[in-house]
Amino acid sequence: MVKSKIAHPAMIACWAALMAVAGLLPTFPVFGTGGNFSVSYALAPLAGIMFGPWGGALACGMGDFIGSVIAPHSAPLGLFTFTINLTNALAMGFLCRKKWYIALGIIAALTVVWFIIPLGRASNVYSLVYFAGMIMSPIGGIFGLKLFNMKKVFAKSAGIFLMAWPCYIAGSIVGNIITLYLIVLPASLWNNLLVYITPIERTTFAIGAAVIGTPLLIGLPKVGIFLGPQYEGVEQEDEVDRQIAAKV
Amino acid sequence: MPVIEYLPGNSFFHKLDPRVKIIFLLSFAVFIFTTRNFYIISVILALALFLWITSGIPIAKIINIVRLMLPIFIFVIIVQALFQVGHTNLVSPLIPKFVPLIGGRGRITLEGTIFGLVIGYRLLTLIILMPLISMTTDINTLCLGMVKMGMSYKIAYTATIAINMIPSMEEQIMTVMDAQKLRGFAVFEEGRIHEKMKAYPTLVVPMVIGAMKKSMLMSVAMDARAFGSKKTRTYIDKIAFTATDYSALIMLIILLGILSYYNFIR
Hints:
The complex is a heterodimer of chains A (248) and B (266). Chain A is mainly alpha-helical and 248 residues long.
């Protein structure tokens, strides 16, 4: 009897390997660092959904770290790049497990850190993006989760999108704080340009996560893999029995 | 070919204990993170290059990293040149005055350009530190070093499995990608955003499902061998600090002390 509450190290390892490889598949450029948006960005919130906050964070952090060793050019923030997807998965893990207040707390705490840094304080207009993330946390955690638990494909997609958006913001705050130190982008760039680009970018990422995540989360139980908040606490074999009974 | 390239050797850096190398990497990464001093970054870069050359790692690998990182460096330099505050104008105005509405705006400053170059230089130093460790240390020894430094055995082992799985995962991606290209989804490398948005799920979903199936089999195999049942582990390889490691550690501390003095106090 295997409980799916705690992800097995083999699953975490597979996901980490997947993240590392997916990081090598570029899709389109990201303005903030000059790097590329890779498929691994779309997989990060899905890891949070499937493995929970800690398992998801570990799988994403490990995968991105390995990815940055294999291909240093795919990690625009060097050794620190892995923290972005780690935070994203962590926030998503909490958000989709009815603990949206922890995801909100993560965004709020990171926003405080942003304001502690002088350049962050100077880029105060940009912090509106973070406040949007804070507002979206309860929306994603309550309304998004309800949609996510529905069986309709569109509702599930909308649920993933609503939950993923604030988590991408959480990840982006970590990336931005590192960028403040490492690339030292001027406040005028944050306030006049990136404040418009970041929400569009994160919306695209969240759509990407929904587009990839919906067929994935529908498909996995059909091949006998039950991962995600809806299966936690349920013995896998019982779930298989329930599905067989439902079919009969 | 292993995914994380290890080049065996007999150099001073090769022989060091993995824990010393990890301390070296982390301390310099944090240092680069906090400094903007060109001379301090140059000292760290010179040390990294010295170790890189004496370890017998081909310089062509650095050139390759620089070539791949070039778009990011150029982006950083352009952004700093355009947006960083400076007094010496190199190009002003950036947009000619005869252009309606936006004419006469923007400038490129000397200070911004130099600052951009320093930031790019710093980024390069940070990025070449990582392969220095991975190319001179066997991955199992590196994981053992992490365990000895306090990392959970389960996490270190998970990382080892992940690294070993990457080649088969890459192969799987290529197979799925080829299969999808045969079905007409040929926009993975080139194509518009909405085309890629349509094409990528057809690549990622089978890839993830395949990986998860593989992980289920692996988890059964691991559980059957009672993985993680004993908290204390024994290892085939043993690592221990030698006099060379202690002296390298002392030299590292002295160097960090000198750099900290110049960075934070002077």
